[in-house]
């Protein structure tokens, strides 16, 4: 049964053609029966006129879904011809109701309005053309109204079907749009998470590896002349590597949500208090750093503390990369009532222009770009560029309240 239903849905014109043939047979048979019975009929019953009219009206039924507007115009033309040629109504005139419903449901708006107007006028015109001989004026009016009701109902039914289809299409379109928006939001969230992890990995790897390279070069240089210094450099390399591995383990743990590693929780996010350890590490690696804290230290939002730590880390890493062998740096941490200020300066030869003029991109596509993104996420401001007296300067202001 389901297969038959699916077949009929796939071939609507075939179904309409079947009903058109059936309607043609009924119309011809009813006309023949009336003639044989000698019943009194209104209008001509000439086969030369009746058969073409019936055929055209059945054609309207057969092609109503393929070309509803054209079939409506054809039906109107056949109706006008019936009035002019005095071909009274037959069973085939049921096609007027069908095409009225079809156009109201699926046709253009102008065709729907035209079908309503013609349908409301069809019954009065038919009564005026073929009036009842023994009917009073009141009876004729009542008959007109009674015959007009089916046309109005057909149009109302078709228009309600159109409205329901449009509503369902709107729901489907909205559901599709929401699904696409959810997919887009998921992609944006994934991209943001990847960018965050990339920034973290860049900061961790760039800083710690640069320390390890400096210490390894120093150890190789003094290996024979000063074994104690070489040993100390190797110890620094070892501790720095462990710290880098611990931070990378924490970052990779983000990608394994829900899994619990043996040995406890991951390493916590760096904060402002660890800046002192960071600077001690830089000093150990041979970079002199002057560090001062102004204002009253107090707990800060975790996002602000992590951003401050990463800015100092990246700035000192850039000093080692671009400042030259004799460069020194200074770090100022200032606690304001409504924010945290950072000032990192060095007296080296300065960073390449593309590091700050091209948006802060270094060889890996991060650097100052990562700084600006971090500062932007907490609603702060960052200024980076060469110092008037030489060297490089990075200034940042991190508000305590996030930007809205």
Automatic annotation (TrEMBL):
CDD domains (UniProt xref): HATPase_UhpB-NarQ-NarX-like
GO molecular function, one term: protein dimerization activity
Occurrences of domain Histidine kinase (ranges): 204-402
Enzymatic reactions: ATP + protein L-histidine = ADP + protein N-phospho-L-histidine
Enzyme class: transferase
Parts forming coiled coils: 161-188
Transmembrane segments: 12-33, 45-64, 71-104, 137-157
Domain of life: Bacteria
Keywords on record: ATP-binding, Coiled coil, Kinase, Membrane, Nucleotide-binding, Phosphoprotein, Transferase, Transmembrane, Transmembrane helix, Two-component regulatory system
Pfam families according to UniProt: DUF7134, HATPase_c, HisKA_3
EC nos: 2.7.13.3
Keyword Metal-binding included in the entry's annotation: no
InterPro entries: DUF7134 (IPR055558), HATPase_C_sf (IPR036890), HATPase_dom (IPR003594), His_kinase_dom (IPR005467), Sensor_HK_TwoCompSys (IPR050482), Sig_transdc_His_kin_sub3_dim/P (IPR011712)
Any one GO cellular component localisation term in the record: membrane
The keyword Aminoacyl-tRNA synthetase is assigned to this record: no
Database matches in PANTHER family: NITRATE/NITRITE SENSOR PROTEIN NARX-RELATED, NITRATE_NITRITE SENSOR PROTEIN NARQ
Protein's UniProt name: histidine kinase
């Amino acid at each position: 049964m389901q297969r038959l239903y699916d077949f009929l849905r796939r071939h609507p014109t075939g179904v309409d053609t079947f009903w058109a043939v059936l309607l043609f047979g009924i119309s011809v048979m009813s006309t023949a029966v009336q003639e044989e019975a000698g019943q009194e009929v209104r209008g001509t019953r000439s086969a030369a006129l009746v058969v073409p009219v019936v055929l055209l009206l059945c054609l309207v039924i057969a092609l109503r879904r393929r070309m509803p507007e054209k079939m409506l115009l054809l039906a109107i033309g056949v109706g006008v011809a019936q009035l002019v040629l005095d071909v009274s109504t037959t069973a085939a005139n049921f096609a007027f109701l069908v095409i009225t419903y079809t156009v109201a449901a699926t046709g253009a708006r102008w065709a729907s309005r035209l079908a309503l107007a013609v349908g409301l006028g069809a019954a009065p015109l038919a009564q005026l053309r073929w009036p009842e001989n023994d009917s009073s004026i009141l009876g004729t009016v009542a008959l007109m109204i009674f015959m007009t009701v089916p046309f109005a109902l057909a149009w109302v039914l078709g228009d309600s079907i159109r409205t329901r289809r449009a509503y369902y299409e709107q729901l489907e379109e909205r559901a599709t749009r929401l699904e696409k928006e959810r997919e887009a939001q998921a992609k944006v969230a994934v991209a943001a998470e990847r960018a965050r992890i990339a920034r973290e990995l860049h900061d961790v790897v760039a800083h710690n590896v640069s320390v390890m390279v400096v210490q390894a070069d120093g150890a190789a240089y003094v290996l024979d002349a000063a074994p104690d210094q070489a040993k100390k450099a190797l110890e620094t390399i070892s501790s720095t590597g462990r710290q880098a591995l611990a931070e990378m383990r924490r970052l990779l743990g983000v990608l394994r949500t829900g899994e619990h590693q043996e040995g406890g929780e991951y390493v916590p996010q760096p904060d402002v208090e660890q800046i002192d350890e960071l600077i001690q590490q830089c000093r150990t690696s041979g970079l002199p750093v002057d560090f001062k804290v102004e204002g009253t230290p107090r707990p800060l939002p975790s996002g602000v503390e992590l951003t401050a730590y990463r800015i100092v880390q990246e700035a000192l890493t850039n000093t080692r990369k671009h400042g030259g062998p004799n460069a020194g740096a200074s770090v100022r941490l200032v606690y304001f009532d409504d924010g945290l200020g950072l000032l990192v300066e060095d007296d080296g030869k300065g960073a390449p222009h593309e590091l700050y003029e091209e948006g802060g991109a270094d060889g890996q596509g991060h650097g100052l770009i990562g700084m600006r993104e971090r500062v932007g996420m907490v609603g702060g401001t960052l200024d980076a560029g060469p110092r008037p007296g030489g060297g490089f300067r990075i200034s940042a202001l991190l508000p305590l309240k996030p930007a809205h």
